[in-house]
Amino acid sequence: MSDNLFELFRSRFPADISRPFIETPDGRTISYGDLEAATGRMARLLAARGVAAGDRVAAIVEKSPEAVFLYLATLRAGAVYLPLNTAYTAAEVAYFLGDAEPKVTVCRPEAEAALAPLAAEAGSQLLTLGQAGEGSLIEASRGFAPDFAPVPATSGDLAALLYTSGTTGRAKGAMMSHGNLASNAIALHRIWGFEAGDVLLHALPIFHTHGLFVAINCVLLNGTEMLFLPRFDTEQVIRLLPRATVMMGVPTFYTRLLARPDFDAGACRNMRLFVSGSAPLLEETFEDFRERTGHTILERYGMTETGMNTSNPLDGERRAGTVGFPLPDVEVRVAGEDGAVLGPGETGVLELRGPNVFQGYWRQPEKTAEEFRPDGFFVTGDISRIDGDGYVHIVGRAKDLIISGGFNVYPKEVELVVDAVEGVVESAVIGLAHPDFGEAVAAVVKRASDGTPDEAAVIQAAKAELANYKVPKRVFFVDELPRNAMGKVQKNALRERYAATFSGTA
Ligand code: AMP
Fold first, then answer.
1. What residues pair up with 493 in beta bridges, in sequence order?
2. Is the pLDDT of residue 167 over 50?
3. Most distant CA pair in the chain: distance in Å?
4. Ligand 1: which residues within 6 Å by Cβ?
5. Rounded to the nearest whole angstrom, what is the distance from the C-alpha of residue 29 to the centroid of ligand 1?
């Protein structure tokens, strides 16, 4: 067996391959045998189209079982899977295709006409795949035999290319190897106690590391079933949860469930594990969820470039507001800007090293070199602290750090104070250009009801708790904080919206 991840998955298929792999809410059941045959046909089609080891295969498609097959067929063909969000504009797709030069691009049938010139420009062949499994990818693969020997790969060979933008600059392609993905999946499968009979409820998008690798790869290593929802639909999730044992979600999944009075312990009666990640889980959500359901959400932390890095324990205390301990074989440390390693309780940037850490940014060796220390630690850009018990706390992105009048302000510290004000649902604290202070602290707040608290009340409450330079100089009220598909608050959009607030106030 080579280190091709597909071979690892296959070694874990159930002995009876007629067992289910995917079940959809409309009643389709897809077995491991179906997976084996469909990915064999697709891998043959890719090979017939000239896709060889190391070539990229781009997918700009809706979530569907066939899209999962495309991911697995790409691995089987020894090629590199490149998933892209269907929400990208034509200009963004043109950039990705030009940068990654995929040999084959698969898009939604309705996007074909618009994407054809972009694919042609990038020298990429275009195939289509619709949400119901229709399109030229499936039609063309039907003509091929289902057997296809996986192309051997070493653990360092690339398996996937995931673009990540952070909040500034052009998106960079994070190169993930077969070894990166395998080591992370094996670690998560073990520490989260996957077992026979587990059924995972899958409601995440599959163009991102969370839904694609964390969720699907754990299921494949377990050789069990997932209930595969096209998207997170609260109604559907409540209806299907009694059939599931594990769910992975972003924090907004949990707040949406809690907003429904009919969501209760009964809906979770067969569940053994709720996992949260991709964005910070509010302590209030953690507590409310425990009170309502009796389940303690397990929060973990990861990023595109590394897969998962830390996790609260399956057995042992899951501590609210923390992301737990490093995964087996992952080393973490907190360092100052100069690279000096800091001690317990000190706040700095989290650095980490391990088999999960990516191979670098696609065709950007200088960018890659900038993000690594000489001893191989990757600089995550997440401001964090490791407490005396070893729990890792993520304070926020280094890019979101506010420097006001020369003082560092960590937005999270201010957000916790603002969130505690009666009537505040949640907040995002940002720095805005200020002629006097360089940056001034501002808070953007979602309230439970209009009118209270008002701006003065929030500022007053913050003054009682925080040093003056941390107190928001302005408070803005919004109906909803802008979030991306993974539930992350888009602070960039907020900074842009309120950019001119303090111009001319010196
Ligand atoms: P992405 O590469 O899109 O997955 O984003 C990774 C970033 O999401 C990390 O660098 C963190 O800033 C953030 N993140 C992921 N999980 C958590 C978490 N549990 N708590 C706080 N931030 C998180």
1. none
2. no
3. 73
4. 164, 209, 277-280, 299, 301-304, 323, 380, 382, 394, 397, 486
5. 33
